[in-house]
Amino acid sequence: MSPTNQVTSKVSEYIDSNGIVAEVKRTNRTKSATITVEEGKVCVVVPRQLEHERITKLLKDKNRWIKEKIALHRDAQPTSTKQFVSGESFSYLGRNYRLKVHQGNYQPIKLINGHFAITLRAGIENPDLIQDSLFSWYKQHAELKFNEKAKRYSKMMNVKFKSVGLKDYKSRWGSCSVEGDITFNWKIIMAPNRIVDYVVVHELCHLIHHDHSPKFWREVERIMPDYAECKNWLKQHGANLEF
Asked: Is the dihedral of CA 16, 33, 138, 144 positive or negative?
């Protein structure tokens, strides 16, 4: 089997070259190729008609630089108790979904038919790649969920926020600036849906009261009468929201 494979789909295109999987984004807006490595994910933006062979050569030429960037990302991640192999389970909105690793041309993590699925080239065992793909999936869906919930609850509360963002906080679930920028810990997306709602409502209430005064908690209770149960759940189980 050739060491280099290409996957093209209606949604995404990937190249697996010398142990590096890169997403290829083709555009008419550029005349040269650009490689980025963010949070362990490799992306190469190229002119729309650039040949597959030239993209592969570019990745080969930049192989050392790309691997150094990936290594820096992985070194910064906390040690995981997971092995990232078929059969392990991962939580999303309070439900556990088992991981299945399929063989074939690379396809990133998807949640289908009640399980997480990823496709890797036959004979390749790459738990780091699986972890990075899961990480990207979680952050993408966390951003969608937090924006959706923030819009819904802000209308209910008659407040306006400026933006929603994600961070990998060590000891908090969210923050709200006086300008209305709300940031959430993406890991909360592993918790049950009601807990996610509580975290969103909590931060939106800071648009009304920028403290944790009795007035603040009364506002939280007005929207979520069971907020104390949610708060207690986080105290008991929050530390377990990890890969």
From this structure: negative
Q: Residues 237, 194: contact at Cβ < 8 Å?
A: no
Indicate the Cα dihedral angle 113, 114, 116, 122, nearest 10°: -50
Instruction: Note the pLDDT tens digit of each residue in 142-178.
Output: 999 999 999 999 999 999 999 999 998 888 999 999 9
- Look at residue 180 and tell me whether its pLDDT is greater than 90: yes
**Helical segments of 123-226, H only:** 127-157, 193-205, 214-223
Q: Mean pLDDT in the chain?
A: 90
Residues 22, 15 contacting (CB under 8 angstroms):
yes
CA-closest candidate to residue 173, choices 126, 127, 230: 230
Q: How far apart are CA 71 and CA 75, in angstroms?
A: 6
Q: For residues 208 and 156, give the distance between their C-alpha atoms in angstroms, rounded to a whole number.
A: 13
**Phi, psi (degrees; rounded to nearest 5) at 126:** -135, 80
The token duo for 222 is: 């007005």
DSSP, residue by residue, 94-127: TEEEEEEEEESS-EEEEEETTEEEEEE-TT---H
pLDDT at 7 over 60: no
- Nearest-10 Cα torsion for 2, 14, 133, 80: 40
